[in-house]
Amino acid sequence: MAIAFKEQVSALRHLPEFFKLIWNTHPGMAIGNIGLRLVQSVIPLATLYVAKEIIDEIIRLAEVKDAQFTYLWTLVAVEAIFAIVSDLISRGINLLDSLLGDLVSNRTSVELMRHAATLDLYQFEDSEFYDKLERARRQTTGRTVLMSQLLYQCQDIITLLFLGAGIVLFNPWLILILIVAVIPSFLGETHFNQESYSLTRGWTPERRELDYLRYIGASDQTAKEIKLFNLADFLSNRFREVSDRYYHANRKLAIRRAGWGSLLTAFGTLSYYGAYVFILVQAAGAVITIGTLTFLSGSFNRMHGLLQGVMTRFSRIAEGALYLQDLFDFFAIKPEIISPPGGLPFPEKVQQGFTFENVSFKYPGNARWAIRNLSFHLNKGEKLALVGENGAGKTTLVKLLARLYEPNEGRILLDGVDIRNYDLESLRRNIGVIFQDYVKFQL
Asked: How many structural domains are present in the chain?
C-alpha cells in the first residue's frame, strides 16, 4: 500500500492540533521550551561572528607594535560566555523535552483509554477497527519523538535564517549552492519514509499477531494449556514464520534506503566542497579577510548541516504526522450507542422488571439472526435460567439488556420505559454481568 507524497504532506494538517495538545498539557513548560530555543537559535551566528573578529584582531595585532590586547580578550571572554550559555540552554531544552514528552505521552494514553471505553462493543469485534486501535495505541509513546523533532525543526529554521542573512551579506550565491546540495538527499529521504510508513501500516495485522503470539507464548494465563497440549513448537514456529516475513520485507527496504542515501549524500558533500573551494580562492586572492574566510566557511558548514537536517527532519515529521493521523483518526471514531439528552436515571427500586417485545438482533456483517422475535417478561425479584446450545443467543440477550448492543427490531423495556431512554452510565452501573470468558484483572 503506497503512500503518496500528497497524502504525506496532507497529514501535516494535524500538526496544529498536536501543538495544541502539547500546549494544553503544560503551558509553562511549553513557553519555557520555546523561549530557550529562540535564544539558542541566535547563538551560532553570534559565536561565528565573534570568532571572525578574534582572527582579524590577531592578524591586526601581529602587524602593530605595542599592541593593546584589551579588545581581543574581551572577544575571547564573550565567546566563552556564548559557549557556557549554549551548553546550559541545551541542557535546559533536553530537560524540558524529556519532562514535557512524558506528560504528553501520559495524557495521550489516558485520553485513548477513556475514548476507547466510550466506543461500542461491536467495534472492538471488527478487525479493521482493531487495526486502527493498535496503530493509535503505538502512537501514545512514539509522539514524544515527534514533539522534539518539531521543536528542533523550528529552532533550526530560525538559526538558518540568521546564518543565511550573514552569508548573503558576503556572497548570496553560496545560499543557492547549499540548496542544490541538499535537495537530492531530501527527496530520497521523503521517498523512503513514504515506503517505510506504507510497510508499517500494511503489516499492522501481522504485528498484532506477533504481539499476541509473544504474549501467549510466555504467560501465566496460558502456561497450563501450552504444556498440556504441547503448543510451544506450534506457537514459536508460527512466530518465526511471520517475523521472518516481516524481517525480509523490512531488510529489502533498508538496503535500498542505505544505498541510495549514501549516493545522494555523497553528491551533497561534493557540492559543499565546491563552495568551500570558492571561498578559499577568494581568501587567497585577498578578496576577503582570513576572519571572513573563517566566518563564511563556519557559517556555510553549519548551514549545510542544518539545512540537510531540516530537509531530512521534514520528511520524518511528515512521516510522523501520518502516524499522528492514525491517532486522531481513532479519536474521531464515535460510538452509536449513547445516552439520550436528559436521559432518565435508573429506578431506585425496580417496580415491574424487564420486558422484551419482539426483539430481533444479528451481529454486524452476519446474515444469521442471533435472536429472532423474542418476547418475554422478567418480573422484579424473579430468577430466570436460560438453557441452550452454543450460539443460541443466551449471552447476546444479556448484552442487549446492558445496551452493549442495540436490537435491530423490537424494544426492551424497564418498568415500561424503553431502556434507550435511560442514562447509559446509570443503566450499566446497575447491571452486573459475569461473562463465561470473564477477565481477571491483575491489579
From this structure: 2
